[in-house]
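Cross-posted from the bioinformatics board.
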Amino acid sequence: MDPMTFSIIRHRLFRIVDEAVITLKHVSGSAITNEGHDLMVSLYRADGTLLMGGVGFLHHLTSAAEACKAIIRRFEGQIGEGDVYLLNDPYTAALHTSDIYLVAPIHHEGRLVAWSACFVHVTDIGAMNPGGFAPQAVDIFSEGFSSPGLKLLDRGEMRQDVLDTILNMVRSPEMVSLDLRSMIACCNVARDRMGALLTKYTAPVVDEACAALVEQSEQLFRARLRALPDGQWQSRQYLDVQGETARVVLTMTKTDDRLVFDFTGSDPQSRHSINCTKWAALGGLFAPLFPLLCYDITWNEGVIRPVEMIAPEGSIVNCTRPAPVSVATVGAIQSVNNAACTTIGKMLAASTEYRDQATAVWHANHFAIFKFGANQRGGYSIGILTETFAGAGGARSFADGVDIGGEIPNPISRMANVETVEGAFPIRYLFRRRAVDSGGPGQFRGGTGGEMAIVQHRAPAGGIDYVISGKGARHPMSEGLAGGYPGAPNSYVWVHADADADLGAPDRLEAIPGTPQPVSWGVYPLRGRDALYVRWNGGGGYGDPIVREPAAVAADVTSGVVSDSAARDIYGVALAASGAVDLTTTSALRAAIRSARLAPQEASE
Amino acid sequence: MQDSPTLSYLVATDVGGTCTDTIVFGSDGGIHIGKALSTPPDFAHGVLASIQSAATPMGLTLEDLLSRTHLFVHGSTVVDNAVLTRDGARTGLITTLGFEDTLHVTRGAYGRWAGLTEGQMKHPVKTDRAAPLVPRDAVVGVAERVDCFGDVVLPLDEAAVAAAVRHLVDDKRVEAIAVSFLWSFLNPAHEARVRDIVAAAAPGTYVTLSSDIAPVPGEYERGSTAVINAYAGRITRNYLTDLASQLATRGYGGATMVMQGYGGLLPATEAADRAVGMIECGPAAGVIGAKFLGDLMGDADVIAADMGGTTFKVGVIQGGQLEYAREPMVDRFHYIAPKIEVVSIGAGGGSIVAVDPVTRLPSVGPRSAGARPGPVCYGQGGTEATLTDVMLLIGYMDPDQFLGGSITLDRAGAVAAVSRQVAEPLGLDPTAAAIGIYRIACAQITDLIREITVERGLDPRDFVLHAFGGTCGMLAAAFGEELSVRRVIIPYTASVNCAFGLISADIAHEYTTTRTLGTPAPAAEVNAIFAQMEARARAQLHAEGIEPGRQRMEWSVDLRYCRQVHEVTTQVHAATPLEPAGLARLVDDFEALYERKFGKGSAYREAGIEMTAFRLTARGLMPRPVLTVEEEGPADPAAAFMGQRPILDLTSGGMANGGIYDFTRLRPGNEVAGPAVIHTPITTIALHSGHLARMDRWRNIVVTTVS
């Protein structure tokens, strides 16, 4: 087709998604949507296949396509102009119950021509724990309301009985109502703007452009795959919950212009809510694949076609109903994100042309902490600790990872200011900063994670409570690449205050007076002078740490992100009292590390 | 125009990235224009050259003009330039112990992606933060703590402050220190104490307190503001001092007023200590200029679009009100200061046109050939086809009449470049390729303006569009039609619009008090907050010689729905001090504004409404320029007709014979129907069939769509 018209239509589709995202954020005024950018808006073709994916939580792009298809199957023959459908059942298409999809048909001159879909993480879904993540859930039935597809708006009219039923099942009905309204407004904008596009260019021309766009993405992606080496790469992820360790094992095979992701060997589904369904696992694969392999290609069905997934039934990445899945997005799905990032990274690192696109794992381990309770201004507050969106960048083949730089599956998140949190919740931060030695060592260092501690402050009820779904305190999850080490794991500590200790001005965990107790899973109080300490993981390193530029190690020590002992023991760099590199000792240290590696090893464990 | 010794002058000079523009406004209503190249980093040189270039055609020497000037108004990119080129002072930061990384961690990913294009955001592996203005080892934490009520939780460790100052000054050799403590905007005592300690221990060190420069919540942005101000502080102060003395040497005896990013003026002595206030003050002045014209012509809703060689900038005036930026940035650093929102993209006459080798999609920019080497057709060594070359191919530029015939444009070169870069890869002929690129440029601008207006809950169909800059006139009628704006105006002063904005601005001071008050609140409590700010403001204006009759106090309040993140600054329309009914009206106005901005159904009344900040704009009214008005004569433009040539007529989709007109020979009342082009000394106005352009009584060109 005419390349100019094609270019204009493509750009406009892009902007339609953008405008719909703006609308979504505007109407929902919630922190998780606005700060965390925990949302997604995309356009789909008439058959429900992905046409234009936006920048949001990327593991939703394929799942929402399946949601469209599920709605098409269920409502065949009854889909009217102005309808809006709701779907949040993880065994049908969604990731977990609290990420609600709204799916809306777009008609032109009476014909169904496309779909828009969006999601936000709603404030509550009526699961046994508040906020959507339910660490105490034992099955899908304890994870709140879930629907495999219902009609929320019928030809533009809200079905009030349906809405009231949903709101009757959730803890914060006004906020959930607003979440739903924001998504409806988003669907409306997408439909109006698509309508204007269709009117200006006619449905056949737009449809031709859409078909060409999908075709183009497929061709470009296949060409890229052909330019990469054939081979097989593996990754193993370990998730620990309550002392039990679950494994996600991924083997990625690239042959010519095809990619197969095979999860054979992964553990059976867990009794904890970290499992994910197959649609969620598929989304989890694509979340890193889009930005790592298709950064310059439109994210649509064309990218999906060359990819196949094998996920054994009943495993942690394809669980069987009624296994609980409410923590999936920060559980098995995130491990799938990490494993795919690693296998793709290994493939890229094996290519001279594409090595500069390879990255070690970024932010491998969210820590969903929802705090709730009466606040200092006479109201009630509930919300996520947004530090969980501030992960660490993985190291790259040409540069260190970005300290507290975010994550790949959700490229444009941010965390709230301390003052914002302290203004809304009766808590006080003792410190929040980069965590020393958290970035995975390597020739290029992984970005550092962070650490923080909070205490209650002038809470009318003497404190607040929080739901924590924290895994990964035992095993590092942000794998390194090309010899780089993984980033440090997460840590969650409840410091019980001593009876009469003065808190003082502690600026690190060890300086907080009291008795530490690790916590990770469930609902806990934060009261009196007790403190909650959280350290979150650093990014994986790239390359061998003993070839890292010694001056870079010295600079890291000066700025406080690498300790003297790590400099010496891991990087083999000796520093003089002035902080400058002692080159002679450094050479000796590095030689010693090399020969220790080459020495015959005792079999361990 | 002949000079008379009884005339006095208002001189305004705006230093932009490329050009330094001057507008001289005489007491007789005469307008004189000057232009010179900007001369970074010694900008004062270009300022004098620009004023000189205005004086010469007036038959005056620089000294003559300056000695008869009663007011000099100035805007400059000096701060933007210091930050962009990393030419500021060696700066340190003192902050609350335990939060030393706040500046460098940039609220997580925010500082990594903010300021990037969507294409760059989709490619995170190739993204990083900008190199910081303060190295991490020049940040020192000291024990102290204030809580969310402004109460002291931990006293300031003064010994630690003294040690920090010694360390920064002696070991790190810093020349400036920024201070940013948690919650300091509620209780600035600890920060103020640090200033005293620095003054005693290291006199001469430039100090900026976050509670001074940005007394608002959000420690990352507030601290970043203090850092930028400290970093660029001395350069700004030296620049303004030096400029004042250079002007004085050449006979100027009056005051200098400096434009701020929020569109108001400050006396140079005050502006010197608020470097962040000057960031992007030129584009802000441009919006003020558009607002002045809009007010004059009775248009309260204006989209101001400026397209020059490298960027396309757009600002919005709605209901006569300016839109302020929520998250302003300089380079890629966030700061908080009231600033008129001006959004820009890399699209201008110098934007390189190309076909992406991977996707085979034709595109305009964001790469630019800049002023040097510039477009191929300028013959200055440019080899890559630009949007300007495309304009030549579609007949919008006359190869022999460019810049008054001073340069003959190289048409053959332009055709060859467009062929090579666009036509051949797509299998098109060069003209078809050029038409396609023109359509794409229009579509991209349309998409941008639509997004900017949607973001504010506005509908472009309610607006008039002002087109400024050398490239905008060639596209404005086309994208204005696609946006369905009411009309497109190419103002007479389009070439020096930012300087024009300088002379239509008032002195303005902005004060903010941050406090959370639920509604309904006692009016007395709100009045007490404003009374305190008004007292400061009146004293300030008095000191500047503004008598009470020229003082205006404008109140506004930030409100939000509880548990929501969007705050909306809402103007107080009722009489002040407020009665209970006036306060109730403010809340109603907020609700209406919220729904307009964020969409139907977005209001969350159930949770209640709270006030979070109280803002006072204190104005010292300046005399407005009175523009000369001419009688509108007959519609027939025959006197300005120069002939015909083939030009792109988008309405019919191809090249058509169009009338060519000379702007300088058009008279008020003349009408030109498309397809046609009007050549002005700085731009071309392209009209497609169905467009009608009329010269109004201020010599603005007003374009409407008639069919």
